[in-house]
Amino acid sequence: MPPTISKTRLEARIPSDVHEILKRAAEIQGRTMTDFVVSAVREVAQRAIEESEVIRLTLADSKSFADKLLSPPKPTLALKRAFARRSKLLSTE
Fold first, then answer.
1. Which of 11, 25, 83, 85 gives the lowest tally of CB atoms within 10 Å of its CB?
2. Is 25 exposed, middle or buried (0-12, 13-18, 19+ CB in 10 A)?
3. Contact 37, 22 (CB under 8 A)
């Protein structure tokens, strides 16, 4: 048997002109209004999540980032001291 898909209800009050636009668009695509709205909302939600979580770099920025990863600068004296303090704090003595 296929797994049962859990569903929840979403209700929204929308202006009648928006309702007519959604109804017409759904009819044009041969879909129910529910299917049309759920599909459209899912696409917009996924795009919003992607825009907030994905960092896009230009080609030049990508190259610069890769260069810095492959050839990092030498540690400064301050960084060396910080690592020494960290090692001392974390030692099991």
1. 11
2. middle
3. yes
pTM metric for this prediction: 0.59
Residue 5 in domain: no
Q: Please tell me the total count of domains within the chain.
A: 1
Q: Is residue 31 part of a domain?
A: yes
pLDDT in tens, 23-82: 999 999 999 999 999 999 999 999 999 999 999 999 999 999 999 999 999 999 999 999
Helix (H, G, I), strand (E, B) or coil at 54: coil
Residue-number span of the structural domain to which 68 is assigned: 16-90
Contact (CB, 8 A) for 78 and 70? no
Kindly state whether residue 76 falls inside one of the protein's structural domains: yes
Q: Is residue 1 part of a domain?
A: no
Residue 22: how many other CB atoms lie within 10 Å = 15
